[in-house]
Amino acid sequence: MSKIAFVFPGQGAQRVGMAREFYDSCPESREVFEMASLAAGYSIEEICFSETLPGDGGAGTGTDGKTESIGEDGRVPNMKINRTRYTQPVLLTASLAILAAVQKAGIQADMAAGLSLGEYCALTAAGAFSVPDAVRVVCQRGIYMEEAVPTGGAMTAILSRKPLPIEEICASIDGQVSVANYNCPGQQVISGEKSAVDAAAAKLLEAGASRAVPLVVSGPFHSPMLSGAGEKLAALLASQEIRKPGLLVVSNVTAGPVSDPEEIRALLGRQVCSSVRWQQSVEYMIAAGADTFIEIGPGTTLTNFMKKIDKTVRALHVEKPEDLEAVKRVL
Q1: Verdict on whether the full-model pTM lies above 0.90
Q2: Which of 75, 119, 221, 295 could bridge across to 317 with cysteines, CB 3.0–4.6 Å?
Q3: Catalytic residue numbers, as ranges
Q4: What is the b/e burial string over 198-222, where b = at least 16 CB atoms within 10 angstroms of the residue's CB?
């Protein structure tokens, strides 16, 4: 029997204007933004939709600490959307707003998963979190991750046409470096101390990797160097209401199903400093019967990964209303 999986992108997919068309045309999507702004305590809409923001002493400050000059109208370029503490709740909200329109169209999933931040969307889609609760937790997650970023961290994407002993090579390096993401065949990401990441990347190139691409990120995410953020998040989640999911939800950490609220709390705490096993998560869902994957949110990153993981399944995406109409025709 055919089964549908909803999948949600992670940080890096954000863009100014995401979900705007749904916000303008779908009352349920607009309601998601309104609930999210109340929960966050600031305007999610303004950060999500505006190319410029009021010069309030922080709006123009990016992850590198540089500040853009204030224009004659007192506004600065919107760099908040790319600052971790804002990126995460804004991207979460945009994806959930698009989800609201998808569900209004009568499209329902049998299972769900999300890459890193996207896992909170998957859990919300499954009813484990309410929208306001998800936003509140993710606001703190972004702050914890931003504040925990150590100096000298880095991430590099490793591209290869053949399997590589990536774990063994990382383990052989002096210093902290480990696999942050198993995205799809031929693409993994390593994370940790910059010197160790560079050394591992050089060894992987010697072992046959075709490219090693340094990523423009503000820290070594999904590595043990973020364990402090994970501990703070686990403490926050300990008192957070989490319900048993109404769908099968696949965890980034285990690449297996998670349904017990206590286990969800523990795994979400570990997630920020553990490998994201995305390829393995997708393979689990396929083995569980998923043959149609719908990426919900900005961009097509997960759809592109899907084409490399398994070409036999159907990979669709919904970013704009016309995408939703196309999905409705296919289904």
Answers
A1: yes
A2: 295
A3: 116, 222
A4: bbbbebbeeeebeebeeeebbbbbb
